[in-house]
Structure formats: structure tokens, C-alpha cells
Amino acid sequence: MDGHLQQNPKNLALHEYENDIITPMTEKRYRIVYEDEWLIIIDKPSGMLVIPTPKKETNTLTHLLNQELDRRGVEVNAYPCHRLDRETSGLIIYAKGKSAQKLMMEKFSAKEVAKKYTAFVHGDVRNGHGIINKPLYNRNKRESLNALTKYRVLERKADFTVVEVEPVTGRTNQIRIHFKDIGHPLVGESVYAFRKDFRLKFRRLGLHARELEFDHPVTGKRMRMESPLPHDMENFIKGERR
Q1: What confidence tens digit (pLDDT) does each residue in 8-19 have?
Q2: Which of 117, 122, 215, 240 is CA-nearest to residue 168?
Q3: 8 Å CB contact between 79 and 98
């Protein structure tokens, strides 16, 4: 790759392939769906940490990605530009170097990055679409911060609803807390709801970061990336559950 951004007619990924690394603990692979001189966009599997917790795990996405860049002779480190929970699958943006990270994070701060998720939530969400506008408490800042989440019902099943979720603000665990607050916690939720309270079980959190859209922070080109629903979530919709 020459490092210059090029867009195909459908705004699909320029550089897409399955990574060969399989970690001993997770035995799951990550996928690079886009890469240029400044950015890398990863399709992360559920169960993989982005950065270490205080336990100092080494099998994180950031560690594995930088190992790969080292093997390829890339001289800069990759830094995540936003958060994605361990159990959440889907798209996450990395920057090559601190300068590119700063530019990309400024896009997030200015709310210039559109993110869409697919979520499974317990029960029947009556309204076909809606907005959840409820402040969330930030323990570090010791104050409540404005939080806004848009949603649209995609499909109704017997015990749960499939929704498209668009977090307008980017508060920690915003989607999980907001849907709990309206009485429809995410399927597989174990932090903001008790699994035992629900008949429906899923081995992980029913949340997938499906789509990202933004203007490239260096070239200005319009970027749109989409990740298909993982097999485990597809099978859950079909009723093939374990």
C-alpha cells in the first residue's frame, strides 16, 4: 500500500483481510477492514479487550495490533481513538501515532463521527423509534453529564427487540445504561441488570458496533465503514441459541 487514501465507489475498505494472529486465551481473530497512512479500522470480536485493565493483560487488541505493525516494519504505534467494551463486537478506529490520534479524537469531541450499533434488548420496545435523553453520572468528574441516544426498532421477536442505536453523545456505557433506564436492558447484560431476572440468555452482551461514518481527519474524504452482524448474533435472531 502506498499509504494514500483512495475511495472506491461504494466507500468500502481499501485494505481488508483476516489477521493470522490467534491469542492463546481468546482464540479469536481480529480483522482489519481499512488501513491507510494515518488510520486503521478494526472489526473487533466480542471478548477481546481494547486496552489492559489494572490486571495488565497482554492479549489486548492494542497489544496484538502493535505486534503486527512491528512485524510489518511500521515505525509508529497504533492508539485507539474511542472505547469499545470487551463484550461488544464491531468497529473501532485506531490512529497511527499520537498526532493522528489527536486529530481523530477531535472529531469525536466535536461529535463529527456518526456511530450506529445493533442491539438486542429484552422485551417489546413499543415505539418504533425514539430518543433517550437522560444525564449520566461521571464518577471521575463527580457530576452528571448530558447523554442522548437515538434508536429505531429493526425487528421484534418473541422475547426481545432488535434495535438500531445511535449514541449522539459518547458517555461510558451509555447505550447499556439508557436501555436499562427505559426498562429494556440489553440481552446478556450482567452489570446493569441481573441475568437471573430474564428467561432469555445470551453468552455475551447483545451489542455490535455496526457502522462508522466521518470525514477523514487528514484527507477530508468521507469515510463510511460497516461491519456485518457476527455469526453468534445472527444465530440468536434465528433462534439457534446455546
Answers
A1: 333 334 444 344
A2: 117
A3: yes
Beta strands at 207-215 and 89-96: parallel, antiparallel or unpaired: parallel
Burial degree of 25 (CB within 10 A; 0-12, 13-18, 19+): exposed
Nearest C-alpha neighbor of 211 from the set 94, 85, 119, 115: 115
Instruction: Give ∠ CA 6-89-7 in degrees, rounded to 5.
Output: 10
Give the per-residue pLDDT at 11. 39
DSSP state, residue 127 = S
**pTM, full prediction:** 0.86
Cell numbers standing for residue 61: 487488541
For residue range 86-124, list pLDDT tens digits in order: 999 999 999 999 999 999 999 999 999 999 999 999 999
Cα 50 from Cα 53, distance rounded (Å): 9
Q: Whose CA is closest to 89, among 233, 242, 237?
A: 233
Residue 192's Cβ-count burial label (10 Å; 0-12, 13-18, 19+) is: middle
For 97-180, where are the E strands, in sequence order? 114-122, 129-133, 136-138, 143-145, 148-156, 160-167
Which of 210, 219, 134, 231 minimizes the C-alpha distance to 173? 134
d(CA 181, CA 105): 28
CA dihedral for 226, 228, 230, 234, sign (positive or negative): positive
For cell 445472527, the residue is 234
Q: Which active-site residues does the annotation give?
A: 85
Mean residue pLDDT of the chain comes to: 88
Q: Which residue, among 85, 229, 224, 114, has the nearest Cα to 162 in the 3D structure?
A: 229
